[in-house]
Amino acid sequence: MASLSSFAPLVFLLLVIGCTARPFYPLPSKGDGGSRKPLQTLRPYNIAHRGSNGEIPEATHPAYTRAIEEGADFIETDILSSKDGVLICFHDATLDNTTDIANYAEFANRKRTYEVQGENITGFFTVDFTLKELKSLRVRQRYTYRDQQFNGKFQIITFEEFITIALQAPRVVGIYPEIKYPVYINQHVKWSDGKIFEDKFVDTLQKYGFKGSYLSKNWLRQPIFIQSFAPTSLVYIANKTDLPKILLIDDIDIPTQDTNQSYWEITSDEYLNYIKQYVVGIGPWKDTLVPVAKNYMRTPTDLVSRAHAHNLQVHPYTYRNENSFLHFNFSQDPYMEYDYWINKIGIDGLFTDFTGSLHHFQEWTSKHQDDDSDNDDNTASKLLHKIAMLLASYK
Length: 395
Ligand SMILES: *[C@@H]1O[C@H](CO)[C@@H](O)[C@H](O)[C@H]1NC(C)=O
Ligand SMILES: *[C@@H]1O[C@H](CO)[C@@H](O)[C@H](O)[C@H]1NC(C)=O
Ligand SMILES: *[C@@H]1O[C@H](CO)[C@@H](O)[C@H](O)[C@H]1NC(C)=O
Ligand SMILES: *[C@@H]1O[C@H](CO)[C@@H](O)[C@H](O)[C@H]1NC(C)=O
Ligand SMILES: *[C@@H]1O[C@H](CO)[C@@H](O)[C@H](O)[C@H]1NC(C)=O
What we know:
Layout lengths: L1 H5 L1 H14 L10 H4 L9 E4 L12 H10 L3 E8 L5 E3 L22 E5 L2 E5 L7 H6 L20 E2 H9 L6 E6 L2 H7 L8 H11 L9 H5 L4 E3 L2 H8 L6 E5 L13 H4 L2 H7 L5 E4 L1 H4 L2 E2 L2 E2 L5 H7 L3 E2 L19 H12 L3 E4 L2 H11 L14 H13 L3
Parallel strand pairs: 1-2, 1-14, 2-7, 8-9, 9-10, 10-13
Antiparallel strand pairs: 2-3, 3-6, 4-5, 11-12
């Protein structure tokens, strides 16, 4: 309570400014953008990794609507391209592991071997199929130990369809699309207007009105983080949009696909200092932040605190509830894992395959900003943040 009362004069001042300028209720003229429940911004973001893909086959319409029902702050996807240059939501370069492509005799001659991110892969590649052909396929569950009942039921969706799902959600839900394998996509797909993959990606976002820097009024209306493992793509699009960007960081033995830089190079203070001109945060593989040996977690590295010292958010991936993914320290309890990362390590967002469980954990341990005022967001910084948000929404 001490922290509250010491800020009371400031709160009072801000309230007076707010009251003299505007009435303190939503203006009807603000339209529907103002009436939907806003994005929560006071606790780590619940990022629905490929939708609620722990339950429903990844990156499908139902996986995303399920994630929205379950409380996702952001729905996440990988963006690739079809042969005819349509941006689609799909994780693998190949269709083999998550669609029924093997059942189509007419496509049997499309198998190819391409180099993707320094590795030769053989299979059926999205870049060899038109959107119409891709739409004829059906998605299936990647993991045998997850629910198989939805196999063969849902189609691949386009980037535009994905955006529409978020925009039509009953509350404000952000999107978190990845510029996936840009080097490989630009090698295999050419657009007739001479634009490249990154241009098409940004054009699509602009077409749907995504604009503004992190926490700006426009951003809060349609929140988004753009993610990529390729620093060149992020730097390139920084000229086109000030939307917030996240640099993904792969395992310690995988160099960047475009600049061939090592993990150690891109996590150095010098590099963080450089990249922070372009990004608002990093998205590292969680086992590089707290290394693992024999399925036990070791001493955490200092990357989270160094990133925070550079004012960069940290959104690690990927949280999965199954025993096979949980380190022994967590006693087979996914809530212990969430608790560790949120409250001990202090991260800013979590890519999870199980949006519902993360949402329940957060609701039970850290209530929503718009719930009753007897919640725990009474620290000075949270209070100031809340006031700033309140004022921003009535400017
Ligand atoms: C992939 O295959 C091509 C053709 O055989 C070869 O030139 C290239 O070095 C291979 N790349 C890798 C990463 O193995
Ligand atoms: C399918 O998944 C397995 C296991 O992750 C992987 O080794 C293989 O390369 C994938 N197949 C294709 C064609 O991508
Ligand atoms: C961004 O735009 C500036 C000014 O037009 C240009 O000099 C620079 O090369 C551009 N950067 C990238 C990465 O395209
Ligand atoms: C990437 O860097 C490594 C280590 O410096 C080097 O051995 C390798 O040849 C480089 N690869 C490419 C494609 O430049
Ligand atoms: C995980 O458990 C191991 C074995 O008990 C212990 O040495 C290690 O410190 C624990 N790690 C964390 C991060 O608590």
